[in-house]
Hints:
Layout: H1 16-38, H2 40-46, H3 58-156, H4 162-173, H5 185-293, H6 299-310, H7 322-396, H8 436-443, H9 449-455, E1 461-463, E2 466-468, H10 474-496
Antiparallel strand pairs: 1-2
Amino acid sequence: MDATTEQPAAIDAPDAAAVQHSIQTVHTAIGEFDKIAAGLAALEKAHPKDIACAVSTPAGMNQAIAGRAAWRTPRIAVEKARKNAKAPVLKLGRDIDAFARTLETKLLEGEANYDDQIKAAEAAAEAARQAKIDAERRRIAGLNLRIDEIKASAIRAVGKPAAEIVSRIQMLTGTDVGASFQELQPAAEQARDATLATLRELHAAAVAQEAEAARIAAERAELERRQAEQAEASRIERERIAEEERSAQARIEAQRIEHERAAAEKAERDRVEALRVAQHRAGIDVIQSFAAAAQNKTAERIRSDIGILQGLSFGDEWDEFAAEAAHARGTAVKALAELHTIAREREAEATRAEAQRIEQARVAAEQAEAQRWLDEQTAELKRQTEALDAVRVELRGTAPAPFDAFADSQVTAGSIQVEVIDLRPARPLPPPTLKVGEMSRRLGFTISREFLEKLGFAPVETKRAWGLWNESDWPLICKALAAHVLAIGIESFGKETP
């Protein structure tokens, strides 16, 4: 380095006096530590650290306070000495670190120039060496790859057909393993020979395997043929069995349908027969019920019921029930005839009783009225007689005779003549609809067809044993009925009155 080269700036070293002062401060603090350490035995003796003070007493409390202060004071002193001793040391360390870093920076600036040149040369030499190594590695890898390709021929031939293995043997036999493999030529020749041996073994195994496969294929084909024949035979047998089952099922189904049809026909015949019997029985019951239902009917209604029963016919439709129905009708007609006689007698008796009641009421009313009139006349006659007797006594001075002029008086009813005038209109009349039952309902008591005929009113028309009269005949029938009742009443009154 010549004289003109720029000199580096001087670096200030730490102040020696300050360093010496810091060292003195540390020594002083360490001396304080020594004094405190030397007094520990005396402190332990004066204030044992495991003593139990009776702090519940003033003396014990004072003892505890004094012991605590004796141990606390040197502890605080130790802490203060520690800080005093450590402070200059820490500052000195920081100053030394800063000074050292400054020196290192300056030194690295000079070292870096030479270090960079050395590292560049070393890196170039290393790169050349590494390139040579990589080239050699690639050359060896290429030779090994060729050898691996020879070996791989056997691996690729595994499981291949024998013809393909023969082709690989021929191709490998013609492969050159000479000087091109350089130092790995022996390895290449060994790999080729080993691979050819393996390929020949694989070829023998492939031939045997293909022969075995052909045998197995033939056996499998034969087995499949037999299985197919057996399957076909089984299919034909199953179809035959299924056809027989279908035929049997069809026969069973036909038998079931025939059985159900026969059962349904029988059920229908039974139902029809039961219905026929029930209808005939119901008809016979209806015939038999006529008598029970006619107990309180009028004679006209009973005679109408007899006509209904007599109008019944029991032809072939009654089958075996015709005789029973005819017998029931005969029994019912006989019973109804008896009831008709009883009803006529009952109705006649009721009619007579009602007429007698009416006539008795009328006679009683007439008698009461006649008696009242007689009583009035007798009273008037008596009054006049008494007045006459009084005059007679006054004129003659004679006593009057007893009043008995009407003591034995009698009332006699004369005959009543009733003239019936025909009030029916001369114009055409509507069809007759008036029945005996309706006339009985209007009158409030029962009359009969025979009674109307006796009065001179025969039915205009007869339908199903029922007589029908014109509505216009009703006033004439009422008038004739009233005259008949009045005549009977007068006749009875005449017989019963003395």
